[in-house]
């Protein structure tokens, strides 16, 4: 069914949250004035912040954050070469990530091995009425003596079957601004699942030089791809042009579209995408997943990218790979240092 044609305008609002005893500080127009200068609360418990949307009437959803304690590792003893490795950023639609999948040890182990290959992963299709899926998955990842944490957004969707977006990231390499976590407001219902956004930064010895960027995590409705792609083009423009001090925007996820179907996204000047003419589903017959960014602004892209082959890399059969997901992870590498923007 076609949605209304009105496009997302320049007054998209974000649900701004901050850590003040786990309380909501307000629904505010976006402001980066004090970004990065606040100290994260340390806690042994998962922190949740309730949010309400005065435009759409949604209420009592949650944006949850993994244990903030792991966000401040000691960098003094870290090998200097650690700061020279590019960030590997991925997108992974983990098909129906819920209780059934988490009850299969071999699947959880495969997911943990995959996620450890990347510094930051945007996850789509978390689907569970329980809130323990991401904590359990992160625990499995960290069983390999790693320090990963997660962010997970509210349950979204027009139908009874709701989905959540999530980010999982290596806290030794990545940090996030707790005041930037949000979900795009979509008062005209142009998007089945409005994107989940957060601003991240490479964790380095020289924070002022570190690459910082927005992640826009999205999953389009396969029945409304053209309309949603056009709406995402507006989202990208707003994210890039309406933010005072950040023009690095990485829109990634399951677009249910190959680059030749990117519509208005293709028309954005200097738009680049990582994956072209390579299947990204496990059956190897569709290109659905991608990472998009401006070649003019995000010159931190190294040109290195890939589609993770679960069968080859993990020694799985085709049917075993399908148990993990019907999508393959897609990834790109970015310098951990900010570079001066230039037309590429």
Can you characterise this structure?
This protein is an alpha+beta fold and 344 residues long. The protein has a single domain (87-334), classed as 4-Layer Sandwich (Deoxyribonuclease I, Chain A). Helix content is 17%, strand content 26%. It has helices at residues 99-102, 105-116, 133-142, 225-241, 264-267, 310-314, 318-324, and strands at 47-52, 59-65, 87-97, 120-126, 148-152, 164-170, 174-176, 182-183, 196-202, 212-219, 249-254, 271-273, 289-294, 301-307, 330-334. Strands 1-2-5-6-4-3-15-14 form an eight-stranded mixed sheet. Strands 7, 8, 9, 10, 11, 12 and 13 form a seven-stranded mixed sheet that branches. β1 (47-52) and β2 form a beta hairpin. The longest helix has 17 residues, at 225-241. The protein is globular, with a radius of gyration of 19 Å. The termini are far apart.
Key terms for this structure?
single chain, 344 residues, alpha+beta, Deoxyribonuclease I, Chain A, 8-stranded mixed β-sheet, 7-stranded mixed β-sheet, 7 helices, 15 strands, 17% helix, globular, disordered N terminus
How are the SSEs ordered, and which strands pair?
Layout: E1 47-52, E2 59-65, E3 87-97, H1 99-102, H2 105-116, E4 120-126, H3 133-142, E5 148-152, E6 164-170, E7 174-176, E8 182-183, E9 196-202, E10 212-219, H4 225-241, E11 249-254, H5 264-267, E12 271-273, E13 289-294, E14 301-307, H6 310-314, H7 318-324, E15 330-334
Parallel strand pairs: 3-4, 10-11
Antiparallel strand pairs: 1-2, 2-5, 3-15, 4-6, 5-6, 7-9, 8-9, 9-10, 11-13, 12-13, 14-15
């Amino acid at each position: 069914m076609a949605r209304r044609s009105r496009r997302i305008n320049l007054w998209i609002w974000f649900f701004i949250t901050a850590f003040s005893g786990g309380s909501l500080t307000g629904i505010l127009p976006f402001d980066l004035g004090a970004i990065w200068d606040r100290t994260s609360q340390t806690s042994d418990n998962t922190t949740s912040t309730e949010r309400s949307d005065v435009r759409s009437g949604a209420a009592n959803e949650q944006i949850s954050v993994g244990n903030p304690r792991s966000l401040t590792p000691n960098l003094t003893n870290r090998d200097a070469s650690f700061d020279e490795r590019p960030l590997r950023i991925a997108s992974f639609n983990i098909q129906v990530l819920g209780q059934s999948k988490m009850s299969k040890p071999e699947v959880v182990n495969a997911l943990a091995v995959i996620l450890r290959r990347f510094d930051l992963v945007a996850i789509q299709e978390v689907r569970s009425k329980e809130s323990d899926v991401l904590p359990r998955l992160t625990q499995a990842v960290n069983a390999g003596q790693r320090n990963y944490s997660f962010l997970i957004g509210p349950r979204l969707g027009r139908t009874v079957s709701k989905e959540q977006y999530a980010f999982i990231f290596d806290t030794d390499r990545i940090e996030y601004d707790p005041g930037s976590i949000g979900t795009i407001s979509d008062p005209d219902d142009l998007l089945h699942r409005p994107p989940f956004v957060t601003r991240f930064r490479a964790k380095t010895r020289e924070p002022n030089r570190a690459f910082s960027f927005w992640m826009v995590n999205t999953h389009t409705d396969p029945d409304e791809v053209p309309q949603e792609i056009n709406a995402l083009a507006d989202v990208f423009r707003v994210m890039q042009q309406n933010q005072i001090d950040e023009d690095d925007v990485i829109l990634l996820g399951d677009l249910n579209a190959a680059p030749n179907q990117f519509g208005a996204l293709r028309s954005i000047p200097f738009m680049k995408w990582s994956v072209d003419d390579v299947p990204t589903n496990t059956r190897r017959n569709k290109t659905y997943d991608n990472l998009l960014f401006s070649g003019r602004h995000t010159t931190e892209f190294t040109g290195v990218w890939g589609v993770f082959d679960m069968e080859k890399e993990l020694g799985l059969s085709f049917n075993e790979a399908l148990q993990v997901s019907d999508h393959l992870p897609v990834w790109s590498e970015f310098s951990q240092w900010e570079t001066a923007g230039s037309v590429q």
